[in-house]
Amino acid sequence: MSPDPKTRAPKPPRIVAIANQKGGVGKTTTTINLAAALAIAGERVLLIDLDPQGNASTGLGLAASARGIGAYALLAGDATPDDLVHPTEIPGLSLIPATDDLIGADLEFAAAPQRERLIAQTIGAPAFAGLFDYVFIDCPPGLGLLTLNALVAASLVLVPLQCEFFALEGITQMTRTIDLVRRSHNPRLVMGGIVLTMLDRRNNFSVAVVNDVRDHFKSLVFETTIPRNIRITEAPSHGKPILLYDIRSPGAQAYVALAAEFLRRERADRQGAVTHHD
Ligand SMILES: Nc1ncnc2c1ncn2[C@@H]1O[C@H](COP(=O)(O)OP(=O)(O)OP(=O)(O)O)[C@@H](O)[C@H]1O
Ligand SMILES: [Mg+2]
Q1: Is the C-beta atom of 25 inside 6 A of ligand 1?
Q2: Domain ranges in the chain?
Q3: Architecture of the CATH domain 14-277
Q4: Torsion region of 240: left, alpha or beta (phi above 0 gives left; psi -120 to 50 gives alpha)
Q5: Single pTM value for the model
Q6: Is 192 helix (H, G, I), strand (E, B) or coil?
Q7: Average pLDDT of 104-115?
Q8: Over the stretch 35-87, which tens digit does the pLDDT of each residue have?
Q9: Is the CB of 226 within 6 Å of ligand 1?
Q10: Ligand 1 atom, smallest distance to 25 CA
């Protein structure tokens, strides 16, 4: 990404939340592998693991004992990037891991002033500017304070959707939540798109769900779909993104294609914004 010639101030990163209140739909898998594919494509990417389960941290090979203070400090607001950011095996991909103290964060910060803005304030601070092109936040399932903080900090939200029965109901609930957060806390928040995950093309029902979701949400749905692929399931237990674990697998190829489509959409969005403001 080229620096803005008009200003010498470091550019703040673009913050992307990966969220769906439903559990097990591919949020963490999509965060890890999209972030990894973008880093390999040359973007400077930070992944924040905001899920107390810590699956993204484990999936990137960072053992619980090596995590230091972790993402909790983003809420407490008492740490600098130097204290928090870990490198990963992929140059250009950094990680702020989840630690056990995140488990109680919902309750602990329930009465904090501006409790929904804690993360936005920390990563919006000058200390975080200029370091990364993208910050991806892996949200926990549910719509608690952690997810709300991610949606308030983000300018874009991506929603992974598993191709199964009830998919449409889940996504309708999620789009309502995004609208609500936009109206009440974060007018910049844009629904960046729906990523269809765990698609089994041999299953007619799964294909019917894809068609339904596309009929309903049109171009909001990424053209790239992520197939159900055993190699994707195996990769986290080796502490690797699928791109390092088995680049030739259909899962890895799908995430490379998703990253390319994501960057195309980003470019179109920037051009649209320029035209719009001119
Ligand atoms: N494309 C895929 N093919 C096969 N298995 C997959 C695929 N995507 C995800 N999985 C598996 O499905 C399970 C759920 O995925 P994942 O952890 O990414 O979902 P999640 O939405 O982050 O879950 P949670 O809500 O618990 O955080 C994991 O075991 C993961 O390995
Ligand atoms: Mg997860």
Answers
A1: yes
A2: 14-277
A3: 3-Layer(aba) Sandwich (3.40)
A4: beta
A5: 0.95
A6: strand
A7: 95
A8: 999 999 999 999 999 999 999 999 999 999 999 999 999 999 978 899 999 99
A9: yes
A10: 21
